[in-house]
Design a protein that fits this description.
heterotrimer; A alpha/beta; B mainly alpha; C mainly alpha; A: 6-stranded mixed sheet; 4-stranded antiparallel sheet; 10 strands; 37% helix; disordered C terminus; B: mainly alpha; 10 helices; globular
Chain lengths: 267, 280, 255
């Protein structure tokens, strides 16, 4: 049974003048790590928001865990991580992680145990009582991930979570994310504008093209797991990166040269 | 253009609504005879129309109409407030410029500038006026002392805010100036002052009202008859007989405060127009 | 140790100014009668304490009452207006203009309403002065919750009430305290200056005014000293409360 079913989803803005997504069809199986990649304006972030019922589709439907997306949201079936960590300044790290647990009504004992587990998972145990502004950007993102995973959602939605970080921190966090994913067995939808990141992390890469946002193609990533830093040097890795890049280029004939570089952050 | 019309429309609606509420409150409370929070009758809450009419009539026998008298007094008070505001703004600005260049002076004076906000400066207004008055040259006496109060009330917020603004200059812009081997003077005028403008105007908006308040209060002790403060004090004495006079004066005083404020806002729009990111 | 060194320049200035004041008045034989020496003021502050201190307390209660009521109503109004966004944005210019009105000019009217002798009239002045800054700032705070944080809460299927409780209110707290600091100062000033238009003989403002009228300036200045100390005390109380409540912000020290 698929975790997420996206059927015929179309999303328009400004009374139909701007088509962000057109007729998207996609199915996600449990335990997959799927990246959405594409240039600015291809709608990948919008698609993520539609899956998370943060914005309704104009046409089409989204089913999560067999339920319509709004109910899945109300049932707490997914966790979300944004590009900026969106932590609450007035809460300590520990209390930030506990936020969804409080919302779900867990009692204090259970919350404390889980928060400690998550802190160990992201290796921030000694920072439990710090405030967000005392932490570096990478650490804040780890807290954000810990918070998203704290209630063990079946589905994890991530919108360019490492986009604001430097490349070394990003590569390190990629490895951490993979180990967490393996441990928990969740399904992940990961939006990124970095080809190498998408190929490194995913089991499948969905390439999108802009104006209107459509799926240009899907690349199955058959790299062996567990993936390590060495994986980036393998020939197969380069092949897959090239395949994705060509898919992007071919379906984006009307792209500007700069956009091909995918250095612009999507919004 | 449309936005301004819309805004004017909202103001007009608000004024009408307020007048309506006033009369409604008056009618309900007077009819029901409630005495909380205060007793409502024609003396404590004169009808809007009565107040309006009072403008056209003389306050005392053989005198020009009230609006005439009040406008003269307003001009007098406005002069005190404006002079005080202007001088205070200049002093505040200069002080901020001096302080931004010296950490030592900052540490010496800032605690007082902060504490001074808690000193009821307005409370010493009467005494300052009495003290300063004889020291001024003859043509400045009277209103000049009151202008001093307005100056005092203006320069503290201007100093603090301008200082904060001067310090808020983008460090990278400052570094850039260093690569041009710029003098402190040009750094000041090309980088610091422009970035301090939103903060400066935020203080000026506050001070606009403060200087009007200072001018009104400052007129009290000397019994200066020529200004609004004196008018308020006098009409207070006759309140039970002619309440609408005091109300009329207060309405004018309110307009004076708003007028000063609006002038500052207009000036701000004109001067800071180039900087799209003023969020002060 | 470093902290003490930081305070030295301020201390130096204090000593310098007081010393200069005392010295100049003595040396130039300035009419003490208008600007008394600090030493005279302090001695009157002490010798007349049986008049001054109770008067200070009387006026302080007016200020405190006005502060509490005005701020409370301000927070309430901000909450109400915050719930109905469109009303808030439409009325904002009105509130800002109202803030520009010299409220003190209306002190005599409050006197007429609540009886000039009673403390209630001065409490009303203080209250009105506190209401606007608290309301405007709290409203601004409630509206400055980051959109992403709201989105996050929606991903948890949070109700509007929960969003208020967990996001909007904590975001508004620093703004509220900034306004309370301003209000604490205004309350005391409002109470005293309100009394200049008439008030009970037990009140500090009246005492100061009467003393000034009969040229008893040391007494008047001593009264001002009492007023300042009380104002500082109220301000300090708000700052202390802020340190406790808004513990998280790195720059709570901003005055």
């Amino acid at each position: 049974m698929s975790v997420v079913e996206i059927k015929g989803v179309t999303k328009t803005f400004a009374h139909g003048n701007v088509t962000a997504l057109e007729n998207i069809e996609l199915e996600l199986q449990p335990g997959e790590f799927v990246s959405l990649i594409g240039p600015s304006g291809c709608g990948k972030s919008t698609l993520l928001r539609v899956i998370g019922d943060l914005t309704p589709p104009t046409r089409g439907s989204v089913t999560v865990n067999g339920k319509p997306a709004p109910r899945a949201r109300k049932d707490g079936d997914y966790g979300i991580v944004f590009q900026d960590s969106v932590l609450f300044d007035w809460r300590t790290v520990a209390k930030n992680i506990a936020l969804p647990l409080e919302m779900l009504g867990w009692d204090r004992e259970r919350r404390k145990t889980r928060v400690d587990e998550m802190l160990d998972l992201v290796e921030l145990r000694s920072f439990a009582d710090h405030h967000p502004w005392q932490l570096s950007g990478g650490m804040q993102q780890r807290v954000s991930i810990a918070r998203a995973l704290s209630f063990e959602p079946a589905l994890l939605l991530m919108d360019e979570p490492f986009g604001a970080l430097d490349e070394m921190t990003r590569e390190r966090l990629n490895l951490e994310l993979l180990s967490i994913w393996e441990k928990l067995g969740s399904t992940v939808v990961f939006v990124t504008h970095s080809i190498s990141e998408a190929v490194f992390l995913s089991t499948r890469v969905v390439v999108m093209s802009p104006r209107p946002g459509r799926i240009a193609g899907v690349v199955d990533i058959d790299l062996p797991t567990p993936r390590t830093a060495e994986t980036r040097y393998t020939p197969r890795f380069f092949e897959l990166v090239t395949k994705v890049r060509e898919l992007l280029r071919s379906r984006g004939e009307h792209l500007l040269p700069e956009e091909e570089e995918l250095l612009e952050a999507d919004r | 253009m449309l936005a301004q019309l819309r805004r004017a429309g909202i103001v007009a609606v608000a004024v009408v609504a307020l007048v309506g509420l006033w009369e409604l409150y008056h009618w309900i409370w007077a009819t029901a005879g409630w005495t909380w929070p205060f007793t409502v009758n024609d003396t404590s809450m004169p009808h809007i129309w009565t107040i309006f009419k009072a403008f056209g009539q003389p306050a005392q026998v053989n005198q020009p109409s009230l609006i005439n008298v009040l406008l003269h007094k307003t001009a007098f008070t406005a002069k005190e407030a404006a002079v005080g505001f202007g001088i205070g703004a200049v002093i505040g600005f200069v002080l901020a410029v001096v302080l931004v260049h010296s950490r030592l002076l900052q540490r010496g004076f800032l605690p007082y500038i902060v504490v001074s906000q808690t000193v009821p400066i307005l409370a010493i207004a009467p005494m300052v006026v009495v003290w300063v008055n004889p020291k001024l040259p003859a043509p400045l006496q009277g209103w000049g002392a009151v202008a001093v109060i307005a100056t005092y009330l203006t320069f503290f917020p201007v100093t603090i805010n301008t200082l904060r603004g001067l310090q808020a200059a983008d460090p990278r812009a400052l570094e850039l100036m260093r690569t041009y081997a710029a003098t402190r003077w040009s750094v000041l005028w090309k980088v610091r002052v422009p970035s301090s403008l939103p903060y400066l105007f935020s203080a000026l908006r506050l001070s606009a009202t403060a200087s009007v308040v200072g001018a009104i209060i400052g007129e009290l002790p000397t019994g200066l008859q020529n200004g609004l403060g004196g008018a308020i004090f006098n009409f207070n004495e006759y309140y039970s007989i002619e309440p609408q006079e005091l109300w009329a004066t207060d309405v004018i005083a309110a307009f004076l405060g708003i007028a000063f404020f609006v002038l500052v806002v207009v000036a701000e729009k004109a001067i800071v127009r180039r900087a799209p990111e003023n969020v002060a | 140790m470093k902290r003490i060194v930081e305070w030295l320049p301020a201390l130096a200035v204090f000593v310098l100014v007081v010393g200069l004041w005392e010295g100049l008045v003595r040396a130039l034989h300035v009419q003490q009668f208008l600007l008394p020496k600090p030493s005279t003021i302090v001695s009157v502050f002490w010798s007349d304490r049986h008049t001054l201190w109770p008067a200070g307390w009387y006026t302080f209660k007016e200020a405190l009452g006005g502060f509490a009521i005005g701020s409370g109503l301000g927070i309430l109004a901000a909450t109400l207006v915050g719930r109905f966004k469109t009303v808030g944005t439409a009325l904002m210019p009105i509130f800002i203009a109202a803030n520009a009105v010299p409220i003190i000019a209306f002190a005599p009217i409050f006197g007429a309403w609540f009886n000039p002798i009673s403390p209630r009239s001065k409490m009303a002045v203080a209250g009105v002065l506190c209401f606007l800054p608290v309301m405007v700032n709290t409203l601004r705070g409630l509206n400055s919750a980051k959109p992403r944080q709201i989105e996050l809460m929606r991903s948890y299927a949070a109700s509007e009430l929960e969003i208020w409780r967990r996001v909007r209110v904590p975001t508004a707290l620093p703004f509220l305290f900034t306004a309370l600091k301003v209000a604490s100062v205004l309350a005391m000033i409002g109470a005293i200056v309100g009394e200049y238009f008439g008030g009970s003989l037990d009140a500090l403002g009246v005492t100061i005014n009467n003393a000034a009228d009969v040229f008893q300036f040391p007494l008047a200045w001593a009264g001002i000293l009492v007023a300042s100390l009380l104002g500082i005390a109220l301000y300090g109380a708000v700052v202390a409360a802020e340190r406790v409540v808004v513990r998280w912000a790195p720059d709570t020290r901003d005055a």
